[in-house]
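cron nightly-structures :: item 1 of 1
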Amino acid sequence: MTSDKTLGRGPLHRLRRLILRGFRQLALPMLQRPRQVQTAALCYRKAETGVQVLLITSRGTGRWIIPKGWLMRGKNAGEAAATEAWEEAGVQGAPPATTPIGSYIYDKITNSGLPVTVETLVFPIEVRSLAQDYPEVSERDRRWLDPAEAAGMVAEPGLQQILREFAGTLRETSGG
């Protein structure tokens, strides 16, 4: 019969310590990483039927989204959102707001296949015109929709809420 002290220093004990150390040094820091930040453009126009928002398809899955991307050196978040709107949807708009109308969280799947939690700041951009030729024209579709209908087409619950609130805010502002 062996004593408890002998068992405490055996191979199972060493394996447990190794696993715990690996978790503390490798896995735990990844789980506690701060969120990445993206910026997005909620592109809208005033039409005869009311306000419409522009959705585009994502390149990878074809889901309906709004133009978004990473922050850019030398640009504030609103300017980066306007740049994404141009590159992804051909939007030529009014100068972007300096304050986001909201934000939402989603998990972006990286090239390695691992998810990264991203907080996306959403800036409204009134569309003045849409170009027919822009950087990602062959990679995306775009569609104008009522904000409530657009909310039903996007996957992210936080973006759905922003679209619903945007529709309500515009109705209140326009008196309709």
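cron nightly-structures :: done
The chain has a mean pLDDT of 86.
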